[in-house]
Amino acid sequence: MSKSRTYESRTESLLLPIVEKQGIEIYDVEYVKEGADWYLRAYIDKPGGVDINDCEHVSRALSDALDREDFIEEAYILEVSSPGLGRALKKDKHFEKSLGEEVEVKTYKPVDGSKEFAGILKSYDDKTITIEIDNIEISFAKSDIALIRLALDF
């Protein structure tokens, strides 16, 4: 397991009891380098959405837990937030909740001349994602998908 995945997993373990007490769920945890800085991001959600007070409370409690455990070697910036409206779908639970929803798919390589698709998420499994565009189902290998997220309708 990579260092980033180890940090994410350990952070998720620390975060779980913090959010469970408040009826909040962990949407995702990521440890990424952007420019010269490392970021540890915890995305949280609950029915009706989270607000700034939820994020602040979780951030303070998580920061204290991370300070006690002190397992991350590098300096990092901790961020706790909502996954947002156009949230990326990464885990099976994300796909399950989003079945029947409109999604945007971006692929690494062109598929039938395009790298961007929008359609209704019809199904998923360990290796593929299937969306429906104009009554036609199209399947993508997960390994070919750069990003899949909920579509934003304004």
Please compute the radius of gyration using only Cα atoms.
Answer: 17 Å
Distance from first to last alpha carbon:
40 Å
Major sheet: size, sense and barrel closure? 5 strands, antiparallel
In which range does the helix fraction lie? 25-40%
- Poorly predicted residue ranges: none
| Total beta-strand segments | 8
Please state the oligomeric state of the protein chains shown: single chain
Strand order of the largest sheet: 7-6-5-4-8
What is the overall silhouette? globular
What portion of residues belong to β-strands? 35-45%
* Average pLDDT number: 94
SSE string: HEEHEHEEEEE
| Broad structural category | alpha+beta
Count every helix, treating DSSP H or I runs of 4 or more residues as helices: 3
What does this structure look like?
By secondary structure, the protein is an alpha+beta fold. 28% of the residues lie in helices and 41% in strands. The strands form two sheets. Strands 7-6-5-4-8 form a five-stranded antiparallel sheet, covered by helices on one side. A three-stranded mixed sheet has the order 1-2-3. Strand 6 and strand 7 form a beta hairpin. Helix 1 packs across helix 2.
Secondary-structure topology with pairs:
Elements: H1 3-20, E1 25-34, E2 37-45, H2 52-69, E3 77-81, H3 92-98, E4 102-111, E5 114-124, E6 128-133, E7 136-141, E8 145-150
Parallel strand pairs: 2-3
Antiparallel strand pairs: 1-2, 4-5, 4-8, 5-6, 6-7
